[in-house]
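hey so u asked for the seq, here:
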Amino acid sequence: MSFATPVFWLSWLAAGGAALLAQPARAQQFPAPRDTSFTVRSAYLKEKKYRPTISIARPTLPATVRAAYNLTYCTLGERRLQLDVFYPKAKRRGGYPAVVFIHGGGWRSGDRSQHVPMAQQLAARGYVTATVEYRLSTEAHYPAAVHDLKAAIRWLRASARQYRIDTTKVAVWGFSAGGQLAALVGTTGGYAPLEGPAGAPGYSSSVQAIVDVDGTLSFLHPESSESAHNNPSAASYWLGGLKTERPELWQQAGGLSHVSPQTPPIAFINSSIDRMHAGREDMLKQLDAYHIYHETHTFPDSPHPFPLFNPWFEPTLNYTADFLRVVFAPTR
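ran it, structure tokens below
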């Protein structure tokens, strides 16, 4: 059973929210308890029952990479939203492309540490990478998370000199709910309703590439489990209502609704669970109609949280790096 299914969340509620744990280690006080029902460890224990040879991907920080942790990119009242940055030690004329990593967890759980290993390894291949915190549905409804991520992109551009970023080459990479957010953020550059007021003013939140790792492209698509029944679900908690109550937001929140000639190149990296990438085939048709570059990679017989585990971690890293190498190839 996926953590993003309605059945999961109904079970969670029936259990009285037992998955809620105490405040995070930082002294900062959050307006709502943190839902830690989805973690790398819990996902591993679940999947190991069916795939005993898997292991959690925990490569060490490469010697060629510097790290800066717990950087505040946005302050909302007393709430500080933070990110971690990983960047090559070597200087490069013109800087390095940047990649924003967006974690999954059904828009309600998860945290940015899930993709620190991937971000560190990609940084070693010549990128500035950032793992970003955003407000979850226990704290704020849609589109708060989208506003947060766009603010983080603006912050990175404003910090380009310190972290050696080529501001003309910025990508978003997201897994699961993070993949949905990556597709939405990437297809809505300059779209005023989703820009939000926070972050470094005067800087663009547009991106030049998208990597969607098992994230839905449409909440209302026939392939989407979220649209199968008009019952409470991970999406309805995040969007602030059932699809019959807020159909305009359910439509707006899908990246499929925003494909245009300005949509950047996109790579889809998917598990074998079709409903996790609902709307992908329809998006591919639209991308082809606009002659926008795209790639699709699917791991057969793989679980939804595959990028967190060996043996899929390194191939996912390779697909990501190869795609970005094509998209961000030096112009001649």
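Confidence is low (pLDDT under 50) at residues 1-28. The first helix runs from residue 6 to 14.
lmk if thats what u needed
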